[in-house]
Write a structure and sequence with these properties.
alpha+beta, single chain, about 120 residues, three-stranded antiparallel β-sheet
Length: about 120
């Protein structure tokens, strides 16, 4: 029984690691582009005309009023006056709590089903 519990616990840890690595705890924040905007975590932009462009790698730079970033077709080179907003990933506490709560609920349900199926009698 100890080995099966260890395997189940290991699987749960792997599932938790995968869940947290797929940006489940992140939310996208849209901010106006100005001199103070942090572009290190930028994940995309929205142009003045409303077109959304996603970056393939986080981050962008501005040189001489021109924005440079990596996109799926190569390098994006765009005048900064054509950029309306910058999108960036931000840690979201509510999403993280929801994810952890959901995973823990699932683990508890699986454990209860396992106990019920094994025929063990758990009484106080």
């Amino acid at each position: 029984m100890t080995q099966s519990f260890a395997r189940s616990a290991g699987r749960c840890l792997v599932l938790l690691a995968v869940a947290f690595s797929v940006d489940a705890c992140m939310a996208t924040q849209h901010v106006a582009l100005d001199r103070q905007t942090d572009l290190n975590r930028a994940s995309g932009i929205t142009t003045q005309s409303g077109r959304t462009i996603a970056f393939t790698r986080p981050g962008a730079s501005i040189v001489n009023d021109t924005l440079y970033a990596a996109v799926s077709t190569g390098q994006l080179i765009m005048p900064t006056d054509s950029v309306a907003t910058v999108s960036r990933k931000k840690f979201s506490t509510p999403r993280t709590l929801g994810l952890v709560g959901g995973v823990m609920t699932g683990v508890m349900l699986i454990a209860l089903i396992g106990v019920a199926a094994s025929g063990l009698n758990i009484s106080p």
